[in-house]
Amino acid sequence: MPWDCIKDDTIKALISFHHMGQIYKYKSRQRRINESFDVNSVSLIYHQAKLNSIKYFMLQLARMSNAVVVLLLVLISLWNQPVLSQNQDQDQDQHEHVSITNRLGNGKNLSLHCQSKDNDLGQHNLADGTEFAWDFSVNAWGTTLFYCDLEWEGVQQYHFDAYAFDRDYVRCQTQCLWLISTEGIYGLNGQTGFWEYIYHWTN
C-alpha cells in the first residue's frame, strides 16, 4: 500500500514501528550469524593450533626416545664387554686372572689361540715352561666366556674353555690357572688349593 494513501497518523506510527522491529530482528539475526561464524573460526584455529602442538610434542618425544634407546644400547654394550689387560697387574676394575702354562716337557712348544665373543687375544707360541696370561672383569650378565684352541706335536686343534663364568666364578677364586701337560689339562681349584685333571686329550 502506498504510504501517501494512509491518512491515519496512528496507523502510520504502527507500521513504522513494525518495520523497525523487522529491521532490528534482521540485524540481530545477522549479528548472531556473524558471532557464530566468529566463534567457529576461533574454535577451529584453536583446535588446529592444539593439534599442531600435539604433533610437535610427539615428534620431539620420538626424537628423544630414539636418542635414549641409542644411549642405552651403547651403555649395555660397554657394560657387557670384558675389560682386558694382557700380562699386566690387576687393578680395581679387574676381577679375574687367567694363566696357561706349557708343561709338556722335553722342550715341546705349544701353539695357543684364545678369545671371547668380543676380544681376540691372538695366536701365541709358548716354549716349554712359559705361560700366557690375561686379566679381565666379568660382564654384568654373568655370561663371560673365554675359550682357547691349542695344538702341539701330539694333539691337533684341541678346544677348551679357559674361563666360563658358571663353572669358574667360584672355583677359580679370581685366578684361573691352567697347566698343559702330555696327559691333558689341569686346572687349579681355588677353593681346595688342589690341581684337578679337567680335560684329557681325545687323540
UniProtKB/TrEMBL annotation:
One cellular-component annotation, GO: extracellular region
* Protein keywords: Secreted, Self-incompatibility, Signal
Tell me where on the tree of life, at the top rank, the source sits.
Answer: Eukaryota
What GO terms in the biological process aspect are recorded for it? rejection of self pollen
Where does the UniProt annotation locate this protein?
A: Secreted
The signal sequence is none
Q: Coiled-coil annotation: which residues?
A: none
InterPro entries, per this entry? Answer: Self-incomp_S1
Q: What is a single Pfam family found in this protein's UniProt entry?
A: Self-incomp_S1
Q: Which family does it belong to?
A: Belongs to the plant self-incompatibility (S1) protein family.
PANTHER family cross-referenced by the UniProt entry:
PTHR31232, S-PROTEIN HOMOLOG
User: What is the official name of this protein in its record?
Assistant: S-protein homolog
Recite the lineage of the species.
Eukaryota, Viridiplantae, Streptophyta, Embryophyta, Tracheophyta
